[in-house]
Amino acid sequence: MNNIAAVFKKQIKDTFKNKAILIQFVMFPVLTLIMNEAIQIEEMPKNYFVTMFAAMYIGMAPLTSMAAVIAEEKEKNTLRVLMMSNVRPHEYLLGIGSYIWFVCMLGAMVICLAGNYKLKESIIFMGIMAVGILASILIGAAIGIWSRTEMMATSITVPVMVVFSFLPMLSGFNHTIAKVAKFIYSEQVSRMLNQVNNLQIGLENICIIVGNMLIAAGLFIVAYKKVHCLQCV
Amino acid sequence: MGDMIITKNLSLKLAKHQILDNITFKVQRGEIFGMLGPSGAGKTTLIKILTGQMQQDSGYAELLGRDTKKLTALEHKQIGTMMESFGLYDRLSVYDNLCFYAEIYHVPRNSVDHILKRIHLYENRRTAVSKLSKGMKSRLSLARALMNHAKILFLDEPTSGLDPVTTREIHCILAEQREKGTTIFLTTHNMYEAEYLCDHVALLNKGSIVEYGVPMNICKKYDHLNKLRITLKNGEMTILENSAASALLVKEYLEENRIEAIHSTEPTLENVFIKLTGKELGGYE
Question: Is the ipTM of this complex over 0.90?
Fold first, then answer.
């Protein structure tokens, strides 16, 4: 527990000096505040920008930051030193993961405030965001562990991030895309975010989100085992 | 004296390349052991196996009395490491880097100040690591390795590419650690460093130990000439047998104050290495 807290605190200090990561956390909450205030169209659904940016935030910020942080630590050998300093792999991942989850939840809170939800709706909104962010963190961890360098992580993250962030938005314009997108957790989360005032979670929603998380966890385990072999080279 | 490290017939093959081949040696408590070899000889891989980051294909390795495949937190707490690439957090300050590890090692924060003063980085404690010179990073990396008062230090090329002043400073700190009873396992391709610091050395080439022992004994072993080379003040050079027969002549030279320098003809560790492998320790064939 002490090591998890130490990694968490280290990451706080590091993020304040890492503009590339910091912007990931801040960009969408700020965009939501601005767009929600600046653009008011009569026929636009209520909180259109809030739910759209919230879904994008889930698909982008936790995924890219988790992958970038882990890949950078691998590239600069800080992870290797940590592993030799009595920090267990699960402690490191929990430290980084919990930090990213916490910061993304702060961002989610800002987005939620922009939506002017009632208390019950806000709790539901934050609950949905919590699950979505967690799923993205798992995928980001798998990419980060797989990548040898930060550059490699970026080149894998960008297409993955585009799929998870933009499909929920694109599915609103195209039925074929919607049919495919429904199997992606970010689309499920987006649909739930659009009905926080009357949330009805079906077995299908849960199965798809849990299924996505299990696939991400599986990919992480495969990557972790593969990396253990790659470290020998 | 107990053995801190034991390896027996340690071998590792990766992608058809024999990285380590039948490595056998022991490191005793309180000694500085040097693993010499050119880049790519397998030195870093050996450290990875000894610290439990990698596993060998065959053979046995033991660290602090435990199989390196089964190292626990107890052993890790007693290890200090300094990697060639330093492994420091560039954006964090010198002080924050050490504070992070102080927390991990359960070391009181006030010891961070003490160690920063010891390595002459106290004045730079607020500086981001990215702004430090290579020598400063090297000292900081060593400070981190010393933080937990480790029983054994693994130092991977600790003075590679450093200026003579920083190198000397690091040598002093290592000698200090040996006085305190810390065991040091260092890899280097600097033969001077090995001769000066190490109690025992192993010469590693293409994954195999080609020679092992006390540096001076190794040099003597390959001193096939066993002669004395005398340089006279007039520039003349004389090679004499290293025996009683030469004593009179040397005495005569000394009485006449004609001697500029006397050298024995034993080779340096580097010469031994070149003789055994046909390549230089610098890593270039």
Answer: no
